[in-house]
Specification:
Length: 102
């Protein structure tokens, strides 16, 4: 299994690797370290996500909720095309930020 990572670059959190049931616990722990360091308006870059399952979506939503509770904003950017239908199905389109490719 490929390693997953979460890094902070300025006002952007960048994921790389799989966002799955297997990687979610470590990514959650890393996110809890990094989320408080984000500015009030930040992005979650998913361009490096290689695979996302339901646990990965739950993790992403939890990051968004934590930011909302803190009175801050976190938009998702560079969302892989195969993830978009799930976001529509779960009515999570509001979490999407502007796509730099559009």
């Amino acid at each position: 299994m490929a390693d997953a990572s979460l890094v902070l670059e300025g006002a952007t959190l960048r994921f790389s690797g799989p966002l799955t049931f297997a990687t979610a616990p470590a990514l959650m722990a890393r996110g809890e370290e990094l989320l408080p360091r984000l500015p009030p308006s930040a992005a979650l870059d998913l361009s490096g996500a290689t695979r996302v399952d339901s646990a990965g979506i739950a993790l992403l939503v939890e990051f968004w909720r934590q930011r909302e509770r803190a009175g801050a904003r976190l938009v998702w950017t560079a969302v892989p095309e195969d993830l978009r239908p799930l976001l529509v199905l779960y009515r999570l389109e509001e979490l999407l930020g502007p796509d730099p490719a559009v």
